[in-house]
Amino acid sequence: MTLFNKLIPVALYVTVVVGQVGEDDVLVLKKDNFDREIENNKHVLVEFYAPWCGHCKALAPEYAKAAKQLLEEKSEIRLAKVDATEESELAGKFKVKGYPTIKFFREGEPIDYTGGRTANDIVNWLKKKTGPPAITLNTVEETVQFKDSKDVVVIGFFKDPESKLAKVYLEAAYAIDDHPFGITSNENVYKEFKVEKDTIILFKKFDEGKNEYEEEITKDNIKKFVKSNSLPLVIEFSHAVSFIVHSYCLSNILVTCLIYNSN
């Protein structure tokens, strides 16, 4: 065996130890390698967890599933975790007060993770934070498919996608994680949806079906518009609601009877 062949296993070992150490496709970060991995990876989602935390245990399989999916897609996004009970210095640095606390590091700058706890939620949130905030819709077919893809979608109609108003719309889209955003400047799409001027329309599969934006186009106004129109006006009268109403009525009857008897 040559010296070169003898060095191969050693080199592989060093690569594993010095490079990205992981479990279930999730990087394991400690004080010694945290800064290096954050610097070497453009986008890293980091979970600060405690081994005894029930919420952390419930999240673990979904977190690993999301990490695996991103690796299989050859994404540059990595998922990582820090045992905050062992790495108290790191936990203190990022003001970890509960478990799990999840931070997204985009080119080294951390922001709070505000997505859901399933693998799909995690992947979708990360893709939105690292990709364009709104999908460009170039044809009527693409726009119709996008409109029908979710219960709530938002589409910005801007003839000049580089205009100041369009950029404000994209800033708002970037800040809203709950619903997908699209943007179009295609004349045929304008005609298909009977849009005559630049506007924003929220399409939904309930109530009146859509809401058209009418306020001054600002980031905060758009956020309020989406929030106020993305929930049903009427909540389905379920068995649970029926039970609550029934109980409330009975309690009122009993109180009335007691007052009557006391008189």
Could you characterize what this model shows?
- The chain has helices at 3-18, 34-40, 54-72, 88-93, 119-130, 140-147, 164-175, 187-192, 219-229, 239-262; strands at residues 22-23, 26-28, 43-49, 77-83, 101-106, 109-112, 135-136, 152-157, 181-184, 199-204, 210-212.
- The chain has 263 residues and is α/β, with parallel strands linked by helices.
- Helix 3 packs across helix 5 and helix 7 (164-175) crosses helix 9 (219-229).
- Strand 8 (152-157), helix 7 (164-175) and strand 9 (181-184) form a beta-alpha-beta unit.
- The chain is elongated.
- Strands 1-2-4-3-5-6 form a 6-stranded mixed beta sheet.
- It starts with a helix and ends with a helix.
What tags apply to this protein structure?
10 helices; 19% strand; 263 residues; 11 strands; five-stranded mixed β-sheet; 46% helix; alpha/beta
